Amino acid sequence: MINLSEMGMTDDKLAYLLTKLPKRSLLLLEDADAAFINRRQRDADGYSGATVTFSGLLNALDGVAAGEERIAFLTTNHVDRLDPALIRPGRVDMMVRIGEATRYQAAQMWERFYGDVDQDGSCKESFLQRLDELGLFGTSKDGTRSNRQTSTAAIQGLFLFNKNSMQGAIDTAEGLIPRKLEAEETMNAPNRQA
């Protein structure tokens, strides 16, 4: 894994690191959309962090001196911010969006975390029913479309927090509702008088 925004990362250092990758290896470049946006504040000595250029990245990935027999993964939260030269065919052969959690994924995750203690699957069904009630699979309990969704990472975090308590995971499932969405729903709710 190479962080393009890491302090001290330069074109030369990036090229050197990539030439030292063993053959048949995987390369992960995280937050490719943020690599060339200088959002960091300067230190007291005036240094602001990485100085990898876009041209330097392209040359390191597939320039004349670039290594071969590797698979590179680029992650981004904003695919629209990626330069077309970076994601052109031949440089990026496949784009996969890892979206929100589905009911199937939540069930499979439950099996991996609690399958050995929830042998009859009753707690899993309670958990999935709770997520359905909360509208976290894109539909609310009355069958209408819901804006609420959650990520597999959030579900994993919930399970880790409740690793010794299946019931705890069920009881705290409401914590999977993204806080920003929860605040918007509260603001958009009709005013009720007591």
TrEMBL record:
Keyword flag ATP-binding: yes
Boundaries of every Mitochondrial chaperone BCS1-like ATPase lid domain copy: 103-174
Record keyword ATP-binding present: yes
Protein keywords: ATP-binding, Nucleotide-binding
One MF term in the entry's GO annotations: ATP binding
Domain of life: Eukaryota
Cross-referenced Pfam families: AAA (PF00004), AAA_lid_BCS1 (PF25426)
Domain ATPase AAA-type core, chain residue ranges per copy: 8-99
Name of the protein this chain belongs to: Uncharacterized protein
Originating species: Ophiocordyceps australis
Classification lineage: Eukaryota, Fungi, Dikarya, Ascomycota, Pezizomycotina
